[in-house]
Every structure is written in C-alpha cells, then in structure tokens.
Q: What sequence folds into this?
C-alpha cells in the first residue's frame, strides 16, 4: 500500500502493548550494552568479575550497538523460540481433542518408538502428518509482510495471467498470506479447509513454495528440523 499505509486504522491497545514490551526489553538491552562497554574498557563485567558463561544478548551486543536494532533482534528470538511452539501445541491439542481414535494411534506409536530423539521423531510418520496438517491449517505466521527499502520487483504476479514481473516501489509493503496459500484446493484437494493428516501420505509432489510454515529461501526458520520433538507425546 506504500504511502497509503498511514490511512489504515490503528489499534491503540496493540500499540500500547508493544510499548510495554519494548520498554521491558530495553532494560535488558541497556544492561547488555553497559556490560560490553565495561568489557572493552576493563576486561570484566560491570561488577568487576569476568563472566565466562554464554549469554546470547551479550554476544549480540558485541556486533550490534544500536539499542533499537538490538531490542528487535532480541524480541525476534523470544518470539520464534517460545511462542511458535506454544501456538503449534495449542493447535495440536485443539484438533486432536475430539479425535480420540487418532490420539490413541499416536500414543501407541509413541510407546512403540520409545524415548524420543531426533531420529525416532523423524520416523514417527503419523505425528509428522498431524504437525504438517496443523501448520497447514493454522500457520504460526498466517501473514508475513516486508517493506521494500528500495525500488524492486517480484518475478511473477503481474499481467493478465499473473506470470509477468510486478514493480514494487520503495516503501511498499509486500504481504504473503500463508493462511490462504495453505488452503488452495488445487494443491491440497477439495477438502483443503478440513483437518485430514492422511493427505500428507500422498503429498510427495508438493511444490517447494506451496507449503511455507517456516518460510523459505536463505532465511528459512532454523527450527524446522526439530519441530516435532516438543510435540512428541510423553508417556509413563
């Protein structure tokens, strides 16, 4: 929408919530920057004691000195490290809660596979089908937006057939609607709005850009390979 973004209605409660979150994050950003300044000048932390443990924020502060950028990087890690798993778990519990037969099947397979690890989880086909289906119907990031910092173009999407380039002027927000992308009947079938984990048994020819729960390209989410481990059903 470019310059017309300013005309969009504003959610003041959301903005107030962001302000609280930013102010809280700024406390730790300030500490990290003070620590790095102390390290550079005295070779020790603020209290005079050398710290040998790894602290992610302090490592970031070695490379980033702008407080706002440092805060944004920190909040990004907090979001993808906790909220994504919580959202996926909530989706799994919600969709499995009224499907006792499927839940019983998953539990039995979990018992047979034993203590979970990366290899056993990869072999847990039914669970991976369920996770893929939950991520398809309710992607963690249903809408992803990026603002162009210079004039650029998209390779396709323009013209009568949608196969021509599209000019993207500087300041334009380009949005990917993952929610709609994952519900295309021409890709996932006429029941694309329904929860059907078994569809993944026949999705061998799925296009690379048809299913994007973790994004794609050089900035694809690094957690995509371990998505199943936190969801693995625990049993006594």
A:
């Amino acid at each position: 929408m470019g310059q017309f973004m300013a005309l969009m209605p504003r959610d003041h409660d959301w903005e107030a919530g962001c302000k609280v979150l930013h102010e809280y994050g700024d406390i730790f950003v300030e500490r990290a920057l003070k620590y790095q300044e102390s390290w550079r000048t005295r070779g020790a932390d603020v209290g005079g004691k050398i710290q040998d443990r790894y602290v992610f924020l302090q490592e970031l502060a070695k490379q980033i000195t702008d407080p706002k950028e440092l805060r944004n990087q920190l909040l990004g890690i907090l979001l993808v490290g906790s909220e994504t798993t919580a959202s996926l778990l909530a989706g799994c519990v919600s969709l499995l809660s009224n499907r006792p037969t499927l839940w019983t099947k998953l539990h039995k397979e979990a018992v047979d596979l034993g203590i979970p690890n990366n290899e056993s989880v990869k072999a847990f086909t039914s669970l991976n089908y369920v996770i893929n289906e939950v991520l398809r119907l309710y992607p963690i990031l249903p809408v992803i937006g990026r603002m162009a910092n210079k004039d650029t173009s998209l390779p396709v999407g323009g013209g009568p057939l949608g196969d021509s380039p599209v000019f993207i002027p500087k300041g334009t927000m380009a949005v990917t609607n993952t929610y709609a992308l994952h519900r295309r009947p021409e890709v996932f079938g006429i029941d694309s709005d329904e929860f059907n984990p078994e569809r993944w048994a026949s999705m061998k020819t799925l296009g690379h850009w048809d299913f994007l729960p973790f994004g794609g390209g050089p900035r694809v989410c690094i957690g995509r390979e371990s998505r199943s481990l936190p969801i693995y059903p625990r049993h006594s």
Observations:
- The two ends are 54 Å apart (CA to CA).
- Residues 1 and 7 are 10 Å apart (CA to CA).
